[in-house]
Write a structure and sequence with these properties.
alpha+beta; 4-stranded antiparallel sheet; flat; 40% strand; 170 residues
Amino acid sequence: MRFAIVESGGKQYRAIEGRTIEVDRLPLETGKKFDIERVLLMADGDDVLVGTPTVDGIEVKVTVADHIRGPKIDRFKYRPKKRIRVRGGHRQHYTLLKVDFIGKPGEERKVEEPVVEKEVEAEVVVEETPTAEKKPKAAKPAKAEKEAAKPSAKKASATTKSSSKKTDKK
């Protein structure tokens, strides 16, 4: 896998052949091809070329795939007791660049497609084993029976409290 560290808009990006990178907005139309001049490093397996500050003789060919906007960032200033509430937001503009080729000018090589791991769906086979017939579960006591038992317990506790109060007064 061949990759390069390139500079665009004062920021550095890792460009991998066959993939896209998201850079700050460029004034180019969708579908236009161009070269990135500032290549700071290029690596191909164990071979690494490091520039001082740039690598000479290496070009990175890219195609403008799309112009997109990043996620919205909300900003809210609040100062209590002063009635200051300021709400604002921002969405950064980006350009998607598809990296077509990294290498020396005139070099002919096939661009390797990035390896994408596919999920293998495993078939689950469930064998039914013969089991004894299940017995029906016993019916649960009705709610009415439970509720009938609870008030009588409350009444009994209420009478004991009242009788204990009478004994304390004497």
